[in-house]
Amino acid sequence: MSLVAPAREPFAAKSSVFDLRWIFEFAIHGVLFVCTAISVITTVGIVVVLLFESLQFFREVSVWEFLTGTRWSPLLKPQHFGVLPLFCGTFLVAGGSALIAVPLGLATAIYLSEYASPLVREVVKPMLEVLAGIPSVVYGYLAVVFVSPLIRDTIPSADLFNAANACVVVGIMILPMVVSLSEDVLQSVPNSLREGAYALGANKLDVTLGVILPAAMSGIMAACLLAIARAVGETMAVTLAAGATPNMTLNPFEGIQTMTAYIVQVSQGDTPAGTLEYRTIFAVGLALFVSTLVLNVFARWILLRVEEKYE
Q: How far apart, in whole angstroms, are the C-alpha atoms of residue 169 and residue 139?
């Protein structure tokens, strides 16, 4: 009786497959780590540059004057470095565009989610999302040639470039974000909540406003806050529509200037690099960065308080 050694080929094949899988997973892990590291390093680099240049600026201009001054004219003599007019213009545009986009977008999202047929939803939602792909400079041109004459015909005292122009076009720009995200959140509410409300005798409107909307409130607020953050950082449309007049006012029919619009103005190359006037770009950028960070932290705090979890 002869003894035959068992074949080792299958074990070797399994070992090679295991080695290839381990190498592939290690490579994927490395690629993902590199992508994450690039994102983090880029963010840290931006913050470091902003802080370094801003510190050079604040050596010559006091932080108190920068934060509390009501006049902004760093490029003209006598110079004034109060950033409040730029803050006022930025949040006037953001607030005005939110007043346009949030109610209209939320109403559209409710209709698409709860009332529209599947065919209407599949046609209308992509059409609205096309608005997000239009370049912002096109919206700015639309504000100059269409929205501004319409406003001046209605209110003759309005300036040619005013905050209302920017509010209208930026509101249209962020509308697809509000609609798309809010509709997705409303669709994600469990059907058991709807069925339970109908079983108690509620009608369609009662279910929508009394059950579905409160259940999706955390996601809706996230969509609205994300859209407002988008409006705060908008540049080209606001630059063309609102003008370049730092004006501390709450009148939407007067010309204003936002923080992003000022950065565009100084970045055109007329201001020598390394001067105090040039460093105002970084000081304003740092102020915009901090204000956006505060807005995001506040949004996170709000979301944690109203968050709904389903099992």
A: 6
CA distance 47 to 209: 43
Residue 80: strand pairing partners: 73
Residue written as token pair 């070992």: 15
- Are residue 146 and residue 255 in the same domain, yes or no? yes
Q: Which of 160-169, 213-222, 263-272 has the highest mean pLDDT?
A: 160-169
Residue 232 lies in a domain: yes
Tell me which residue of 263, 298, 222, 302 sits closest to 53, measured CA to CA: 263
Interior CA angle at 106 toward 105 and 109, to 5°? 85
How is 200-231 classified by DSSP, letter by letter? Answer: TT--HHHHIIIIIHHHTHHHHHHHHHHHHHHH
Task: Please give the angle made by the CA atoms of 155, 157 and 163, to the nearest 5 degrees.
Answer: 80
Range of the domain at 17: 9-59
Helix, coil or strand: residue 72: strand
Please state, in angstroms and rounded to a whole number, the distance separating the CA atoms of residues 188 and 172: 25
pLDDT tens digits for 268-308? 767 777 788 888 888 888 888 888 888 778 777 776 765 55
Q: Is 301 exposed, middle or buried (0-12, 13-18, 19+ CB in 10 A)?
A: exposed
Q: Give per-residue pLDDT as tens, 194-205.
A: 888 888 888 888
State whether residue 214 is helix, strand or coil: helix
| pTM, 2 dp | 0.80
Helix, strand or coil for residue 278?
A: helix
1 lies in some domain = no
Q: How many domains does the chain have?
A: 2
